[in-house]
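Usage

Read records sequentially. Each one opens with the input sequence:
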Amino acid sequence: MKTSVVVANHGRDLSVLKASLPPDVEFIEVNLGLERSRQRNIGIEQATGDIIIWLDSDQSLSPGLVKECEELLSSKFYKSVYIPEVIVAQSFFGRVRAFERTFYTGTAVDVPRAVLKRVCPKFNEELHGPEDADFGNRIPGQRAISKNVLYHHDDIGVIDYFRKKSYYAKSMRRFKELNPNDKVLDWKYRCWGIFTEDGKWKRLLRHPILSICIFAIIAVRAVIYLRNK
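and closes with the structure output:
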């Protein structure tokens, strides 16, 4: 199977990402100054591979990830693959976010990053932020979870982080209209259940300081969401 890696870029240096790609993948960068969803859709339209792996411009792949996705998606059982995301950051805030991200792999909050081209939907260009979740809801079939990871090189500061979340929250009303039964809209699950299901609560107890910080971040995000509801 042939894999196409699609990246919507806005002038960012992609040298780390490119260096992580196997030589036989098709690499499609769309850097037209358009909204992220539009650029992703252009990349999906241009892709000629059997598999599309869509990435953000600050991500890179671990060795073996592309091959594993190809093996999983050639089985005729899976249509897409969740890829565990490792946030690479040196700051304490970055460490908290990296810890939080470990709870999301394969859940309703996560979204498959590798999809068979023949069933790959387009991103909703009305949405800015929750378009990932909306996209994931429209992928049919069974989903696998890869053992190999992708890296997210994102050491964003606290102010910029919440400013970005505020921008994303503006699309949540439309997202709810399109996905009224989405599990991420259940605040009990989103703010607690996702961290405790399947024995994950033990991880919270092992890292109490990081856990407290996670729930502090969630509280701020909740305020942002309610202000834009």
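Summary fields computed downstream for this record:
- The two ends are 43 Å apart (CA to CA).
- The chain has a mean pLDDT of 95.
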